[in-house]
């Protein structure tokens, strides 16, 4: 009997291996170590076959080196998921499994790493060590610090102990290993009583719990305005599932939301809660993976990769902020977590809840087709009302000019009406949120003498100016695409003029302008704190938690943030939201940009008036007569989305067609374009696909590599996948594709 092994290599096939006589046949779903060419790889056994069924001659058949697991680590449900992912995204099965498994598992590390503990034997003293055994004594002393219970192997290794010394000390009879299995978690209990629900919330909970009780799949779009109590619906639907002894998976779009989300669920349920995200160490990720797999984890909160984890007894999946583009993986296996969640719901026959205030057009189309059930939440609980939206025409008034310490005037980027509203809100003891989706100081450094601009040498992009008046030594230019950095020049490299000026506005510059207006004793009676929230200020560990704590103190303050602040945060004392230039996305070349811009604006606007106080939203714009903007402000997101759907239908764009985007990356633009032209020539005759391209990518040069792309559109999903199945692998084997990187993106979020 032979085993078929899926290996983490970019080849669309599996590999046959024999089993040495001294080894028992590895089970399907277990890890094996094999020789592959000159490498040694860790793969997953996916099938047993007879030798007669193998295409490999007996003389060339290799045997596995060793089996790493006594029992399968990938169960049949996970294998079915891997096969579906490989088939739908046209990705090699071995690479799919590699994406699904934690890095330590892929490396072949033992799964009992987390439960193997070491302790000092009771009779051992310092006198048992030879005077020359200095390193052994040091290692012994490290273990000694953990007392008579010792510590787990992974903790000791993280502290700097070496596995070889542990083995040496064990052989000398000084320490011993023991296995400490986790005890089964206690049944989930309520830590706090649920809140009263309104009729719409009750209907939504009933829909979800009915599907759970009937043990059937049901996709539910929980379409609730911001602040309408979607979280309470999640909590009460979860209660029924958890009390039945089932696990609940909650997906959130970003790491920043996980601690906040955990606090919400921990305050309601006394349960084992596990967090899963990219900011965790490999060991903690393995621990989380094991806890999900064994059933120790009862509530799992994670970012998109958590949807690929194994579960012992999954009963409900919740995708919070389901519209967010962060759920789409942008490299390797380009899956969309919402789509995978729906598939896993179908696989396990459980309900899947997609919660959002701004559903994607794809989800609205699924509702129209009867593939999702829509539950609407149209009111905020209690006396809270949705914030009113108002446009400020920036054409009718100049933006406020502020005088710097050196006497020079500079533009704050904010109109006088906006500044007046901010001041009134602060004086009323409330908080203001100003949304600017551009970090750094300014997006452009320009020479006013000759027109030179600071551009990235590796990308088709301007370098962003990072500058601080308080700490000028840390000022620099940076590309936000490839991380290239350079010093800010004192004079123009082209004409030697010193007349260099920053153009545009980033969060840092806006924060400094606001500081001059509202935190300066010369301009403000009270100095209000300016809290900047972006990737630069939340990079350090626990920085986001500290910022969140400052905001929730409720003291008057101005929050300046990027899209990080738009996702599901609850700021009860924010009553004014300002959007200085958020509507510029309506002018983008990307056909999805109006949808994404509207979602972002509505989500940010939803941070206002979530407590007892009324909220309002001020949109500063240079295009107040833009029909899309007016539609959004006057009629709301639902009406706006329906009009976009009609547009998409007329133009034959997704969700009324199905797309595949082929990207090609190489050293020259000519090579990438030629490869895609050859790919088009290999399309089957009579394919009935709309072929757009090859064309240059929106950013044709990135990180010193050139990018071209090709778009395929089909009226039917099955038609697209049928063509791709016949066409994609031969394309990868084209002579012109050699030394180039070709990638396939199914259902791309933009092109």
Report the principal-axis shape: globular
Strand arrangement in the largest pleated sheet:
13-14-11-15-16-10-17
Q: Termini separation (Å)? A: 48 Å
**How many domain regions?**
6
- Provide the low-confidence segments as ranges: none
CATH architecture of the largest domain: 3-Layer(aba) Sandwich
Q: Structural class, please?
A: alpha/beta
Fourth CATH level, the homologous superfamily of the largest domain: P-loop containing nucleotide triphosphate hydrolases
At a glance:
The protein is α/β, with parallel strands linked by helices and 751 residues long. The chain is 30% helix and 24% strand.
Q: How does this structure look, described?
A:
- By secondary structure, the protein is α/β, with parallel strands linked by helices.
- The protein has six domains: 2-101, PriA, 3(prime) DNA-binding domain (GIY-YIG endonuclease, 3-Layer(aba) Sandwich), CATH 3.40.1440; 116-179; 189-377, Rossmann fold; 388-440 and 507-646, Rossmann fold (3-Layer(aba) Sandwich), CATH 3.40.50.300; 443-503, no CATH class; 658-746, Ribosomal protein S10 (Alpha-Beta Plaits, 2-Layer Sandwich).
- Helices cover 30% and strands 24% of the residues.
- Strands 13-14-11-15-16-10-17 form a seven-stranded parallel beta sheet, sandwiched between helices. Strands 18-30-29-21-28-27 form a six-stranded parallel beta sheet, with helices on both faces.
- Helix 15 links the parallel strand 27 (530-533) and strand 28.
- The longest helix has 16 residues, at 717-732.
- The chain is globular.
């Amino acid at each position: 009997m032979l085993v078929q092994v899926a290996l983490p290599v970019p080849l669309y096939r599996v590999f046959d291996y024999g089993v040495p006589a001294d080894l028992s046949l590895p089970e399907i779903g277990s890890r094996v170590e094999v020789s592959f060419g000159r490498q040694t790889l860790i793969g997953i056994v996916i099938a047993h076959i007879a030798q007669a069924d193998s295409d490999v001659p007996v003389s060339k058949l290799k045997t596995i080196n060793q089996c790493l697991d006594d029992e399968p680590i990938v169960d049949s449900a996970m294998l079915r998921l891997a096969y579906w992912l490989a088939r739908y995204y046209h990705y090699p099965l071995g690479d799919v499994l590699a994406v699904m498994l934690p890095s330590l598992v892929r490396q072949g590390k033992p799964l009992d790493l987390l439960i193997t503990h070491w302790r000092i034997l009771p009779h051992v003293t310092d006198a048992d060590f030879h005077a020359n055994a200095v390193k052994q004594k040091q290692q012994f002393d490290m273990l000694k610090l953990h007392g008579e219970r010792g510590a787990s192997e992974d903790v000791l290794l993280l502290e700097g102990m070496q596995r070889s010394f542990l083995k040496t000390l064990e052989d000398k009879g000084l320490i011993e290993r023991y296995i400490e299995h986790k005890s089964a978690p206690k049944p989930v209990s309520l830590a706090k009583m649920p809140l009263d629900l309104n009729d719409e919330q009750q209907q939504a909970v009933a829909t979800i719990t009915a599907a759970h009780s009937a043990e059937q799949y049901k996709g539910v779009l929980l379409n609730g305005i911001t602040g309408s109590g979607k979280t309470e619906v999640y909590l009460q639907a979860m209660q029924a599932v958890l009390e039945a002894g089932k696990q609940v998976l909650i997906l959130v779009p970003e790491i920043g939301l996980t601690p906040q989300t955990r606090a919400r669920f921990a305050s309601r349920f006394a349960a084992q809660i596990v967090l899963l995200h990219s900011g965790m160490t490999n060991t903690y990720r393995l621990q989380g993976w094991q806890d999900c797999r064994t059933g120790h984890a009862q509530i799992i909160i994670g970012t998109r990769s958590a949807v690929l984890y194994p579960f012992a007894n999954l009963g409900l999946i919740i995708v919070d902020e389901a519209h967010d583009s962060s759920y789409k993986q942008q490299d390797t296996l380009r899956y969309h977590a919402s789509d995978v969640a729906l598939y896993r719901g179908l696989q396990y026959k459980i309900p899947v809840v997609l919660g959002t205030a701004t559903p994607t057009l794809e989800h609205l189309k699924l509702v129209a087709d009867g593939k999702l059930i829509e539950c609407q939440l149209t009111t905020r609980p209690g006396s809270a009302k949705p914030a009113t939206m108002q446009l400020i025409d920036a054409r009718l008034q100049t933006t406020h000019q502020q005088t710097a310490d050196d006497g020079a005037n500079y533009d704050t980027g904010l109109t006088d009406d906006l500044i007046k509203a901010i001041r009134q809100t602060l004086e009323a003891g409330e908080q203001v949120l100003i949304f600017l989706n551009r970090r750094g100081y300014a997006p452009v450094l320009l020479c006013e003498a000759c027109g030179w601009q600071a551009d990235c040498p590796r990308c088709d992009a301007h370098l962003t100016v990072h500058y601080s008046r308080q700490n000028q030594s840390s000022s620099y230019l940076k590309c936000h695409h490839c991380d290239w950095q350079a010093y800010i020049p004192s004079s123009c490299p082209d004409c030697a003029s010193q007349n260099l000026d920053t153009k545009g506005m980033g969060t840092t510059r806006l924060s400094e302008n606001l500081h001059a207006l509202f935190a300066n004793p010369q301009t403000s009676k009270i100095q209000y704190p300016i809290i900047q929230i972006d990737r630069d200020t939340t990079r350090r560990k626990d920085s986001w938690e500290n910022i969140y704590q400052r905001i929730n103190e409720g003291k008057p303050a101005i929050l300046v943030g990027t899209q990080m602040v738009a996702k599901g945060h609850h700021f009860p004392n924010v009553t004014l939201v300002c959007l200085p230039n958020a509507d510029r996305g309506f002018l983008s070349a990307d056909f999805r940009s109006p949808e994404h811009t509207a979602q972002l604006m509505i989500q940010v606007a939803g941070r206002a008036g979530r407590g007892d106080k009324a909220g309002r939203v001020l949109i500063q714009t240079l295009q107040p007569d833009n029909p899309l903007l007016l539609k959004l402000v006057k009629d709301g997101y639902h009406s706006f989305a329906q009009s976009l759907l009609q547009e998409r239908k007329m133009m034959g764009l997704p969700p009324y067609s199905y797309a595949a985007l082929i990207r090609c990356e190489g050293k020259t633009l000519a090579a990438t374009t030629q490869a895609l032209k050859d790919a088009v020539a290999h399309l089957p005759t009579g394919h009935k696909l709309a072929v757009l391209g090859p064309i240059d990518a929106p950013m044709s040069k990135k990180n010193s590599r050139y990018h071209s792309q090709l778009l395929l559109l089909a009226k039917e999903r099955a038609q697209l996948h049928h063509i791709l199945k016949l066409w994609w692998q031969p394309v990868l084997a084209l002579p012109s594709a050699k030394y180039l990187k070709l990638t396939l993106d199914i259902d791309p979020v933009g092109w």
